[in-house]
Amino acid sequence: MRFAQYKYLCEHIFEADESGNIKQHYDKIEAASLPPLVLAYIGDAYFHLFVRTRLLFFEKNKVHILNDFSAKIVSATYQAYAYRNLQDELTAEEKDIFRKAYNAKSHAPRVASIVDYHTSTGIEAIIGYLQLTASEERLRLLCEKSFQLIIKKIRQEQSSTDQ
Predict the structure, then answer these.
(1) Domains observed in the chain
(2) Which residues pair with 16 in a beta bridge?
(3) What is the dihedral sign for C-alpha 27, 33, 38, 39?
(4) Could you read off the pLDDT tens digit of each residue along the chain, which spans 163 residues?
(5) At residue 118, what are phi and psi to the nearest 5 degrees?
(6) What residues sit in the active site (predicted)?
(7) Rounded to a whole number, what is the distance in angstroms from the first to the last CA of the chain?
């Protein structure tokens, strides 16, 4: 994004109304009309919070341990692993959201393969969609299944390196 465009957006996104309060641009959020990468942006944040909260059932004092595990669990590689194990359980609508997000143009980080990065973007978009549509039961189910799959995979990898 060019500097002039960025400056314009910064000046106009948070406009004040007549009483000095920040004026919203939209009355409601239509999840179905949001770009897939925006859904993934929300899904990434939700899954991060889910994992961090879930880890408190295992450790409550060592924040560096919590941070290390949460970073590992929410990595593109492990999210892609979870997706590959859950894909048959997804609804047609969720598969469509995944496909759109997977194919969205984005830049993969250096720490994951391009396929894993796009796959994790797809599952994050599903999570974001479910969060924005208040599909709480389905959201918790997919996040918990992903969490369990990833933890089991980490344990499996750890036990194979211990041998």
Answers:
(1) 34-162 (1.10.1520.10)
(2) 22
(3) positive
(4) 578 888 887 777 888 888 988 888 888 999 999 999 999 999 999 999 999 999 999 999 999 999 999 999 999 999 999 999 999 999 999 999 999 999 998 876 777 889 999 999 999 999 999 999 999 999 999 999 999 999 999 999 988 876 6
(5) -65, -35
(6) 44
(7) 50
Is residue 44 among the annotated active site residues? Answer: yes
Whole-Å CA distances, 73 to 11, 41, 47, 131, 153: 37, 17, 10, 19, 10
Give CA–CA dist 163/144, Å, rounded. Answer: 29
Count of all residues that appear for the chain in the document: 163
Surface-to-core class of residue 106, CB atoms within 10 Å of its CB (0-12 exposed, 13-18 middle, 19+ buried): middle
Task: Name the amino acid, one letter, at 77.
Answer: T
The pLDDT value recorded for residue 140 is: 97
Q: Which token pair is 137?
A: 């039961």
CA distance 114 to 8: 33
**Candidates 27, 44, 68, 88; catalytic one:** 44
pLDDT recorded at residue 5: 83
pLDDT for 84 equals: 97
